[in-house]
Amino acid sequence: MSVAFLNLKDTYLELRPELDAAVKRTLESGWYVLGDEVAAFEDEFAAYCESKHCVGVANGLDALHLALVALGVGPGDEVIVPSNTYIATWLAVSQCGATPVPVEPDVDTFNIAPALIEAAISPKTKVIIAVHLYGQPADLGPIIELARRHGLKVLEDGAQAHGARYRGKRLGAHGDVVAWSFYPGKNLGAFGDGGAITTDDAELASRVRVLGNYGSRTKYANEVAGFNSRLDELQAAVLRVKLRHLDRFNASRRIIAEAYLKGLADTDLTLPIVSSWAEPVWHLFVVRGEGRDALQRNLASVGIETLIHYPIPPHLQGAYAGMGIQPGALPISEKIHDEALSLPISPTMTAADVSEVVSQVRKLRSTPA
Ligand SMILES: *Cc1c(COP(=O)(O)O)cnc(C)c1O
User: Fold this and answer.
1) Ligand 1 centroid to residue 359 C-alpha, Å
2) 180 lies in the same domain as 315
3) 67 C-alpha vs ligand 1 centroid, how far in Å?
4) How many Å lie between the centroid of ligand 1 and the Cα of residue 220?
5) Ligand 1 in contact with 134 (CB < 6 A)?
6) How many angstroms separate the alpha carbon of residue 195 from the centre of ligand 1?
7) Which residue, 70, 85, 98, 96, is CA-closest to 130?
8) Which of 57, 84, 160, 187 to mutate to test the pocket of ligand 1 (most atoms within 8 A of CB)?
């Protein structure tokens, strides 16, 4: 028996008639960029996220970058970022010519620790980025309150959290703007790259729309030096189909996560916790423990594929060597990177797959009673 980490082909096969019809309809329309499919997806995704506006862009990194530009971030500014995140969060800040200022996570939730943010605010700070890592919402309440008190904006990185709720309300417009990725492996994934922003701020949505379309509102009139970052019609048509099934696939992930939480409770691994105000969507199920690399090797030898999110934190990447942040400077983030292991969490996994993962992990890591 072997268990894949994530099986995207099975998801396609399950939705094949609807997806094939959507692709065919788009190809036959003769219109491939900025048309009816994108407009319809933007309306449907905004409604799903309980937000007023959605603007499609080319990918998640662009969604973060264009949101920052639209918020007025530029050279010389500082943006607070989680130290524990995928590097895209930091790169979006660097692309603006601004400086990412890392803040450590809460080791139990993996997300930025609100209590540590204030000390990182300087006169140059413009924006706080909260990442909803692994599908768990960050604690937005205190972050937004702090931002209001200091005149800062809040950008949420929702790339791993489509459908999650914070205090009962979907992610989509708690902060000033949310950036989304539709990379194939995300909870809502396209058949290629895609991204979007959602917000309740009409002015901000309009700025992102103009920035992503060559700085143009009217064809051949370029009011600002913009970019080419558009969601295409084919990806929008695919996403419209997948959005209709997102809650069901997220529910499958939750069932898998609950089986892991129950089945692995008496091992020596640290399991993810769910805060009382959080409804996560389990993009990843991340356990922590010493001897992570041996655990991964041993699981691989019995056919269970696991991944590490992420092996190297942004501040220790070559890309950020210039910032001169030394190993040991962000110890919580570094500990997570050394100990974290993501178990398989494909929405199409069978109950037998889940039992197999539980029993193999228990064999390796059960603690004597
Ligand atoms: C995937 C991801 C991104 C970037 O999305 P792309 O569509 O790959 O550009 C940004 N932030 C986080 C947390 C992600 O997981």
Assistant:
1) 32
2) no
3) 14
4) 31
5) no
6) 9
7) 85
8) 160
**Res 192: pLDDT:** 97
Q: How many CB atoms lie within 10 A of CB 71?
A: 23
Closest by CA position to 115, among listed 131, 103, 124, 126: 103
Q: Torsion angle, CA of 202/188/31/230, rounded to 10 degrees?
A: 50
Note the pLDDT tens digit of each residue in 118-167.
999 999 999 999 999 999 999 999 999 999 999 999 999 999 999 999 99
Q: What's the whole-model pTM score?
A: 0.98
Q: Which amino acid residue places its CA nearest to atom 14 of ligand 1?
A: 159
Q: Do residues 224 and 279 both lie within one domain?
A: no
Query: For ligand 1, atom 1, which residue shows the shortest CA distance?
Result: 159
Strand ranges in the chain using DSSP code E only, listed in sequence order: 53-57, 78-82, 99-103, 125-131, 153-157, 165-166, 169-170, 177-181, 195-199, 216-218, 221-222, 278-279, 285-288, 340-343
Average pLDDT of span 248-256: 98
pLDDT of residue 95: 98
Residues 194, 88, single domain; the answer is: yes
Q: CA torsion, points 303, 107, 140, 179, in degrees to nearest 10?
A: -40
Q: In a 3-state reduction of DSSP, which class is residue 85?
A: coil
Residue span of the structural domain in which 337 resides: 246-365
Q: Is the CB of 360 under 6 A from ligand 1?
A: no
The answer to whether residues 87 and 235 belong to one domain is: yes
Residue 182 has pLDDT above 70, yes or no: yes
Question: Does the structure show a pLDDT above 70 at 196?
Answer: yes
**Does pLDDT of 1 surpass 90?**
no
Same domain, 227 and 310: no
Question: What's the pLDDT score for residue 369?
Answer: 61
Same domain, 225 and 256: no
